[in-house]
Amino acid sequence: MKRLQLLVGMILGLQLAHSGDGGTRMMNTEIDRKVEELLAKMTLEEKIGQMTQVAESTQENKALVRQGKIGSFLGITGARDSNDLQEIAIRESRLKIPLILGFDVIHGYKTIFPIPLAEASSWDPALATRDARIAAREARAAGIHWTFAPMVDIARDARWGRIAESAGEDPFLGSVMAAARVKGFQGEDIADLDAVVACAKHYVAYGAAEAGRDYNTVDLSEKTLREVYLPPFKAAVLAGVGTFMSAFNDLNGIPATANNFTLSTILRGEWKFKGFVVSDWGAIRELMNHGVAANPAEAGEKAVTAGVDMDMVGQIYSEVLAGLVKDGRVHQKIIDDAVRRILRVKFQLGLFDRPLADPARETSVLLAKEHLDAALEAARRSIVLLKNDGEILPLRKDLKSLAIIGPLADDRGAPLGCWSGKGSPEDVISVSGGIKAKLSSGIQLFEAKGCDVSSDSMAGIAEAAEMARKSEAVVLVLGESADMSGEGASRAYLDLPGKQNELLKTVYETGTPMVLVLMNGRPLTVSWAAEHIPVILETWHLGVRTGPAVADVLFGDYNPGGKLPVSFPRTVGQVPIYYSHMNTGRPPTDDRFTSRYLDVPVTPLYPFGYGLSYTKFRYSNLQLSTRTIGPGQNLKIFAEVENVGKRPGDEVVQLYIRDLVASLSRPVKELKGFQRIAIAPGEKKRVEFTLRLEDLSFYRGPDREFAAEPGEFKVWVGPSSVEGLEGSFEVLSK
Ligand code: NOJ
Question: Measuring from atom 3 of ligand 1, which residue has the nearest CA?
């Protein structure tokens, strides 16, 4: 019977949704019927209640839940606390509509995984799916139904602290990661016990904030919006994401929270998104600060008519919507549609059948061994080896002495990174903890902070240098604390903060071989280190298993294979910097009157897609299945990658294209495919990519037709955005 239902559903193109774990499947039409039934019983106040989200479980809010005037909470976590609230909704409110409880489960709930920027460095979407699935399992067990993730903003400006939450600078990589995370959070069915409904945020172009200053203005062409900033959101929709969050920023003068064009025309019109949209925190009220609403009523009217269904904490909808409907300024249908969308997700989540969390399950699920093992694997796969001159790494395990220095070496808070859910430092193994667990007791270990992350004191530097002097090798752990990236954490300088550069230079001058371990939430300008320090490891904020993962890499128990998902600037003056730029009329040469700087090269310090390994890979034999590609055809691209070193290793093989001449300028390179593959020493693997005309298309001209133009294209297969085997092919006219 179930199979038949499934078949009918597939034939009709209908989606199916569970009504409970292991329970019978419910057709979306069934859900729609239930939604209509419920809607018909609701008063206007109860409808507005469904559109209202608050953050505190106060007596006043509990009373409002009883009256049906709150439909959602954010930040209430734990099976018991969430059940307390839910019980009020399902037992004491007139219509017994369950609450939807949301939380920022960005890179883990209790078991904290690498920050999203780090996870993108793994170039491993399956890993991202698995991490999100574990995060969802823990969150759901703790009474959470809805995560405000994935954050899918493209970020090309390292000053913007929220780059840490993103997959970096590239729309292709960003789209793959967006879809992978949505699938992980939502699983097969959001009613399942290990799933939550995801939320693609922040819609849209929040990452393009002027000057990298959080919440700042965004002014973008529609071309750039469609080519760069929208694709990960569209990928999230295609992956079935249930909700969206509108962004704080204004886009070309229209705040994202009141933007008809992005919310209605594109999201619901072009993409047919059926889920609901929540505002960002207080963003509806902020329409007054933006200067597009004179009072709360205007703010509420603009947001709801643009398509924002739920008011996150702003208390605007609860204040003004009823009056707006009564005055005829907001049509009843707008309210009904918003409530329909919200109720539909509540039904899909199975909340009417199983509204409460099970405290026993919560205890058994959080920090389960399998989750911690996955966190270790994720951390290892996210590490990027930036430099390894003289092959100092991996370090020998039989060192007689080692100095572990730096303010972050034994820090258990920083590895959690920003938005660390319910993660806690006690669950983190620091870098020095990881190293100590690996080494025999015979080794003489010296440990010193040297300085703080950001204070001006130089008091500990001399002592740290003394320890370096006494040791055979130094591991120096520098970077940013967890609160230096994320929301409201923009920086105008991208250097190592505080006196860390002084510490770095002083330890370097001791002459002891050293490894610089960077722990940070954004690309840092580390030009001096890149020039002087022989070994640099980018570890970002890797989560609870930071120490073991870094130690595994330092001592060769794991061969790093991550690649940068974002360009590293040499200096903040180069920002925004990204590989996929236009050629300009005067591409940089040594000539002064070309697009360059007088005082710094135009190239990044480390390019997008870059990362080393303890082994070496040789690329050869680029082949194309055809020299020409026309409508309906595929172009297959093959290359061979051989591990010519002595250790097994992973390589992220990347495919880039360039459209040489078109009606609009096209980027000098665009990522169109990648595969992370494991290759044994001496082994050669053949990698295959497929390009379709759609992959070569762009939004042309004023009518925004999405099409590929005839003409010559270049193609590269290689280890980064600046290297690779080169070929070419031609797109034929229709
Ligand atoms: C504001 C942030 O911009 C958003 O990302 C987050 O989900 C909400 N606050 C809720 O915490």
Answer: 280
